Amino acid sequence: MSVLLGCIADDFTGATDLANTLVKEGMRVIQIIGVPAPGTIPDDVDALVVALKSRSIRAGQAVALSLAALQRLREAGARQILFKYCSTFDSTDDGNIGPVAEALAQALGAGVSVVCPAFPETGRTVYNGHLFVGDRLLHESGMENHPLNPMRDADLVRVLSAQTKTAVGLVPYADVHRGARAIRARLRSLAQAGTRFAVVDATLDEHLREIAVAIADAPLITGGSGIALGLPANFERAGHFERRADAGELPQAGGSAVVLSGSCSKATRTQIRAYCGDHPARRIDVLALARDFDAEVGCVCSWFDGQASAAAPLIYTSDEPQAVAAVQESLGREAAGLLAERAMAAIALHVVERGVRRMVIAGGETAGAVVEALGVDALRIGAQIAPGVPWTVSLGGRPIALALKSGNFGAEDFFAAALGA
Ligand code: ADP
What we know:
By secondary structure, the protein is of the alpha/beta class. The chain has 2 domains: 5-237, Rossmann fold (3-Layer(aba) Sandwich); 256-420, Molybdenum Cofactor Biosythetic Enzyme, Chain A. The protein is 39% helix and 20% strand. The protein is built from 15 helices and 18 strands. The strands form 2 sheets. Strands 9-10-5-11-4-1-3-2-16-17-18-15-12-14-13 form a 15-stranded mixed beta sheet, with helices on both faces. A hairpin with a 2-residue loop joins strand 7 (130-133) and strand 8 (136-137). The two termini are 30 Å apart. The site of adenosine-5'-diphosphate has 22 residues, from helix 12, helix 13 and helix 14.
């Protein structure tokens, strides 16, 4: 058996979100961190998601990484490629969505490829080619103030046209509403007119499933996690795959548990308060790290060693906005962040030495730092804990179960719920 669907995601938590969607639809999924080395892809898997960090790097570099990932996915046998970007279309005039999509389309000899960031479950819908976040147009949703990729135009045909050399068209709502045949007919006529990319309207999951039927044979699909909803059913109809009830089953990791948090977002701070009520918790002082890194990390590690093995303690740098601002004022924003991440990485290594095999980690950057320190390069994706956050288990010698949560995800009891799942 070889891989059916090969996915290239432009960031880490976006990749996990996509993998989570595919597992819910019955596929066995592995997420690989960075371009996989040749010959490292396991064969008991239906979909592979390569997580790149290519959203905000130079366009040329993003293209090179994406083409390298494509090469590996084709070697693994992938029949269809999904280029996954954010459902808020995070990009600039230079890219990277347009240049990467163009390069992949050319390498795959694709005719017309859909552009479908809609993800109704999270309020992202597309109507007349305009992207909405809830009831706001993209450029009035707060995304216009994004520090890296400010989105100042909701008209995706115009946004993508500025990023590509080829014509961009639209599959309008009226076609999508009529279903797969009408969508296919519109795509065919756009292809005949020389259009290479087609933004597709969608406001409901039903639309995404109809679009998926219409593009069952397309070599390349581009979009958010939403467009993945209908893809497993295509492979099933073609007789290549049977949906598995056990797709999200993971090997038992055993061992003890810990919660690490470097996320300072509102949701995480609420989760920390809830968890502290009935679990041992130790806050790391970032200013103390700046004064004597080894001493502070050593103190935290000794504290951890004194806890009962079943206690599942929480260790966190997370703090209230005013305190974070004060630390940033004194150390610089980047230096403060790096210190906190380095401390979490060192502590993660220590606790794994002491037998921890289950980790809940809050914070996208924090999770990235810990995963890198632990030398994890691939994850098998398990069942969902909260929308967008699955349990995962690292592949390789020493399996570690990891629940990686980016800032605003999860309800108040997320940490306990994750460990109880
Ligand atoms: P989120 O997913 O909530 O954005 P991240 O881990 O991605 O969380 O980002 C949080 C950033 O804040 C990280 O770089 C982390 O190291 C940094 N950080 C954590 N705690 C503190 C603190 N007390 N003071 C300053 N920076 C901090």
